[in-house]
């Protein structure tokens, strides 16, 4: 069994071979009642995992343990089972190791994907558009954003796992949609494929000037994924009673020198609401609506979803660092095995 083992806490960007690496070890299988053995097909690589590479108990999820495999959401096939709810051959999603095979004690947290073998939906969707990033986009836009037709939304990291769905849902709600992303190809995807009204490459030119040009009438909702200079620019262009959906601040995850946002005072005069959240906060409230709505939009082709699929567990560490650096184009997953 090949696993990606956590070696050392990184200070800045994690480095494959130094902070985590692929190791081979013998698979010991001694299933107890209700346990299952999974053959992992896909694993999800997500920015929050960088937060688990810290030696702290303060995070909202427990940190990775040195010497242990990293873990995350996956899609897997049950290949041995002592659990009648998850028979051999079932396709499941849940938390697994970054590895080829995982024993899940008591099948804890697993969910079966019905008709997985016959469905038109690709299995990787269950860790992306139909999984955690999808629920993040769907629930927070509605609950925190309070979007209304005709309003303008600005989305950073707009071509990523969360951003591309936020943009498409906002279009469905008749908002004017503006996005930023880190390459010209990503900007073209936002404009041509996702039909954003305006988009810009934040790495070219001045962010505030680009944002002003893309949203001359100002911004009602800022969907915050990156923080730093982009947040500072958004605060300048926010309208009265604007809402900031504080989803993430990825520009701050791999640095020892956090960016000092200079203009928070805008929050006062403009009566801005800025609210953070963790997706699990909204699972009970939005989970069922999300699965129904996004599931049907996807099957009917009303939304599209771009994935960036690295192949092979050996490539997981490099793909993870690449995702933190913007080398991914769409939701980053690793395909470990074919069904
Ligand atoms: P993405 O698929 O968007 O991948 C991360 C992207 O971040 C990169 O592709 C890159 O895109 C962008 N990025 C990296 N560094 C910088 C930087 N210095 N400045 C600007 N952009 C940068 O990831 P997700 O969609 O999964 O996550 C997006 C955000 O949402 C993250 O902040 C994440 O932490 C957060 N999140 C929060 C959740 C919650 O519960 N609150 C749940 C899920 C995600 P580019 O090429 O455009 O720079």
From TrEMBL:
One of its GO terms (molecular function) is oxidoreductase activity, acting on the CH-CH group of donors, NAD or NADP as acceptor. The keyword Oxidoreductase applies. It holds the Pfam family ADH_N_2. InterPro entries: ADH-like_C, ADH_N_2, ER, GroES-like_sf, MDR_fam, NAD(P)-bd_dom_sf. CDD domains: PGDH (cd05288). It comes from the Eukaryota. The keyword Oxidoreductase applies. Keywords: Oxidoreductase. Residues 17-334 form the Enoyl reductase (ER) domain. This is Enoyl reductase (ER) domain-containing protein. It comes from Modicella reniformis.
